[in-house]
Amino acid sequence: MNLEYQTGFGNEFATEAAEGALPVGRNSPQKVPLGLYAEQFSGTAFTVPRVYNKRTWTYRIRPSVLHKPFEQIDNKLFRSSPFDEVPTTPNQLRWNPLQIPSEPTDFIDGITTIAGNGDLFSQTGIAIHIYACNHDMEDRFFYNADGEMLIVPEMGGLTIYTELGVIDVNPGEVCCIPRGLKFRISISDNPKSKIQNPKCARGYICENYGQHFRLPDLGPIGANGLANARDFETPVAWYEDRDAKCEIVAKFGGNLWACETDHSPLDVVAWHGNYAPYKYDLKRFNTIGSISFDHPDPSIFTVMTSPSGEPGVANCDFVIFPDRWLVAEDTFRPPWYHRNTMSEYMGLIYGQYDAKEEGFVPGGGSLHNQMSAHGPDLDAFEKASNAALQPQKLSGTMAFMFESRYIIRPTKFAMDCAELQHEYSEVWQGLKKNFGK
């Protein structure tokens, strides 16, 4: 399949997969062209200020309402707020990667919830999941009424077939699926994949219950830098006109529900609007840093932010630590030791993270919660303290962080699983007292 994309973040797009499918001059004429149905897909309240309003008009073969009643199904390891299964510890936590399932497992069945916060019913907070799958969704479709889903592949590529078009996303790229959008996922046969079995995939998901992710304000940085709107890609219209027994799975109110329909729900022939899925290549991020001494706060690595009700304090920031030059003089170059009012879940897509050279591996994760002290391990501290400070290029690395103003609460699975590194705190125990020497 030859995939096409439109560029820009939050743009008003117009696209049709059949000539003449888009009405001209009005959204819902008395008779829609080509015998289609007009259906608005709203991501915000109608009365939100225009700059924040998200909606898309779709022109589809059948309206979305055409399905049998939903019935609740097993949530498996997919969890939601209030994340109160176990007491939340202030200890630093770290996990090894979850294993790829041995039984056929599609993207939805392969989701395991690691942690979360907030309350999906009041639309605050996030959930953090790992997906690990080895089987395509075929006549099975999914939508999430609880939040948008930021998908961060770590192993293997995904082809995401949505109501509004098709997206290929591979490690080093991210994709955001809006709240309520139906999709199915196939595992890509990626010839560039470094894994032995290209028919398996693993990665991270940030399920955002709060305000939509948007580009952060740049403040003193000015008009340019960080993620540029032009580098985000949205698919063009594509549709399936297919009659078959299909299952639609919905995540609604923290639980999974399923219904039957007699056709593919991906039957939107044309659409226009600004509420749509998008992808972004993280290598296009324009990093900012110090060219004298010290280094700025990690907020300079923010790709997107989901604001909270307090200005400058995020419901969730999506932050990356990509390839970059380090040139600051007389400066401890890795992240410093710190205690933070924001809670941080980190993952590694590929390469090595400069503050944790051992134990923090691709597919794994770490959680440093609100006011829990953390920073470089002993080896990284010794190496950085004694390094000759020449210009240095960090290459072949891509770590990321989901950072939230709320305490991130691990699930029972995350605290009981074999992948939890119970000895994680040992990485700091060798730090010596140097005062007075």
Structure write-up:
By secondary structure, the protein is mostly beta strands. It folds into two domains: 67-266 and 274-282, Jelly Rolls (Sandwich), CATH 2.60.120; 290-419, Jelly Rolls (Sandwich), CATH 2.60.120.10. It contains two helices and 28 strands. It has helices spanning 378-386, 412-416; strands spanning 5-7, 13-16, 37-42, 55-60, 71-73, 93-95, 111-116, 126-133, 140-144, 148-155, 158-162, 165-169, 173-177, 183-187, 201-208, 232-235, 243-252, 255-263, 268-273, 278-281, 302-307, 314-321, 324-326, 343-350, 365-368, 392-394, 398-404, 409-410. The protein has a nine-stranded antiparallel β-sheet with strand order 1-16-20-13-10-15-8-7-28. The mean pLDDT is 95.
Feature tags:
437 residues, mainly beta, Jelly Rolls, 2 domains, nine-stranded antiparallel β-sheet, six-stranded antiparallel β-sheet, 2 helices, 28 strands, 3% helix, 35% strand
